[in-house]
Specification:
With 210 residues, the chain is an alpha+beta fold. It is built from five helices and 14 strands. The strands form four sheets. A six-stranded mixed β-sheet has the order 4-7-9-10-11-12, sandwiched between helices. Strands 1-3-2 form a three-stranded antiparallel β-sheet, covered by helices on one side. A three-stranded mixed β-sheet has the order 6-5-8, with helices on one face.
């Protein structure tokens, strides 16, 4: 097994010249470096997936606005309990030995955590990824496929930070059938869970000019 210090040195060294890297690794090796807060470290198909943890102002604003809008909605529901987690929360898929860090996670009801840990969530209801040039191909292909295997997930959301664009994948009552809807104009209203949200409210005040 690669020592933690050597593995971290390799990851940090490569990220000096690469924005997104994949390194063959065991789950144990991933877990030894997964708590580095200045890096975004995930685990997928026997590989560590790493990128820099720092994000753009637009990225942070988009996540903050979505959390605010959805928090206001869920807090006004009388008989349902939802929890919103920001970037850094870990979603674990046991059957695939996979660990992801969505930019926003919604949980419906009890938060279920992997036994023996305090951070690895098993029952996300909604996951959201704010796309970047470095990670968008991975997020919208391999990661999307694996998110769909989580039985508790109702919706998967992708949000662009270079233009007004949101793509949602919503689970139907039919096995393995999802509805994909793209919203590509400030005049559009997106359906997130059971809430209709104007893209103007998400992308307002010309944040894309940052």
């Amino acid at each position: 097994m690669v020592k933690t210090a050597e593995l971290l040195e390799s990851i940090r060294g490569r990220l000096l010249t690469e924005s997104f890297i994949r390194i063959p690794a065991t789950v144990e090796e991933y877990e030894s470096v997964s708590y580095e807060r200045d890096l975004k470290i995930e685990y997928h198909n026997d590989e560590i997936i790493a990128s820099m943890g720092k994000v753009t102002p637009v990225h942070s604003i988009l996540v903050s606005r979505l959390i605010k809008i959805l928090s206001n909605y869920y807090d006004n529901l009388e008989n349902d309990f939802f929890w919103l987690l920001e970037s850094g929360a870990c979603v674990h898929i046991p059957t695939l030995k996979t660990y992801y860090q969505p930019d926003m996670t919604v949980i419906n009801g009890e938060i279920k955590i992997k036994e023996g840990t305090t951070t690895e969530i098993l029952n996300p209801y909604i996951v959201c990824e704010v796309l970047s040039k470095a990670t968008q191909d991975f997020d919208m292909s391999e990661k999307l496929v694996n998110y769909k295997t989580i039985e508790s997930i109702k919706q998967i959301i992708f949000v662009a930070q270079d233009r007004p664009w949101i793509s949602t994948y919503t689970r139907t009552n039919e096995p393995n059938v999802w509805i994909n809807t793209d919203y590509d104009s400030l005049e559009n209203t997106a359906i997130i869970d059971n809430l209709t949200i104007s893209l103007k409210d998400i992308y307002k005040k010309n944040i894309l000019k940052f």
